[in-house]
Please model this.
Amino acid sequence: MRLFGLAEANAYVPMLNQTFTRVRALLDAGERDEAARVLEELEQLGIEVKAPDGLVDFNAMRDGEVVYLCWKFPEETISHWHRRDSGFAGRKAIAESDGFVNSWAN
Model:
């Protein structure tokens, strides 16, 4: 499992916005196979696609626990996180005191 630092995950946000703009257009055009291929490229980076219309999670370490940094199209930054067992409904705003590990070189 790849772990992301908050700054590293945020560096992917411009690419994610471009990718999901493209995927949404492909889905609207009925090109589901091509959309799936594009989403697979995100998965290969270690980004977990939760919904094809633009919901992804990044594994991250927070206070010794693996959690998700959560991003939803078209957010401009990653500003929320949730525990792995709580899902989108459990999203919490990221606070400076949250204790996310800054970066991972894996």
Summary: Helices lie at 6-11, 13-28, 32-44. The first strand starts at residue 48 and ends at 51. Residues 13-28 form the longest helix (16 residues).
